[in-house]
Each structure stands twice: as structure tokens, then as C-alpha cells.
Known about the structure:
Distance between the termini: 17 Å
Shape: globular
Number of strands: 5
Number of helices: 5
Mean pLDDT: 85
Strand content: 5-15%
Amino acid sequence: MGSDLYFETNKAQQDVFGKHAEALDCNKLVAMNESSMKYNAENKQILLSLITDTKGVLINPKNVQPYKVRNLAGTTMMSNDEVVVYVDEDDRRFVVFETGQKYRNDQAYFTEYEKYMLMPENQKPSMTFS
């Protein structure tokens, strides 16, 4: 995907939900590290609209006229917390992955995994999956 289409933050309250947030501007993936239930609950309506909105999002950089862009970004929330976002049983907007301990701190495994994921022929299927 490349860094020009990817935005990663551990300050989602500012970079994704904030008044002057620009995370969704021209990005294919927005990754929220250390995501918390507190901020996700406070911003529930914004979060849901980021997932389902087809009309676009308003980008409001400081000292620049606000403009609207089509939201093409997938959003991931990563955390070590037990609950990151409240999900109803019938909610279709979220996919929750719970990881185990098998590869925890396994540097050799993740070194090989990174090499595999950086190969262009392995990146395309994850971008075109539907």
C-alpha cells in the first residue's frame, strides 16, 4: 500500500475525531493504535459514519478552507484492552479479532511475515478483497 495511503496514530481523539482531523484525507487505511473504549464511545456517531458514509467526509485543516473528500479509508482499531468498541451481536460494521499467545514476541516469525507482506504480489489480494 505504501505510506502515502496509510495513516497511523495513537492520538485518534485528535487525528481522527478532532475538529482539524486530516487522517481520512487521501488515505486507504487509518490505523488507530492504543484505541480506547472511552474515546470510541464518545465518538460513536462519528465512528459509525466513517464506516457507512458514502457521501464523504469534511476535512478541515487549520487555516485552510474546509473541503469534502470521498471516504475510501478502512479503519482499524488496535488495543490491548478487553473492550475497545461496543458491538451489538447483529452489528455488521465491525470485525473483532482476538489474538493468542502463540507468536507473542516471536521476532523470527514476524520478520518473515513482514518480508512476505512487503512482496507486491501478496499485497494486492488484501487490497482488492471484497
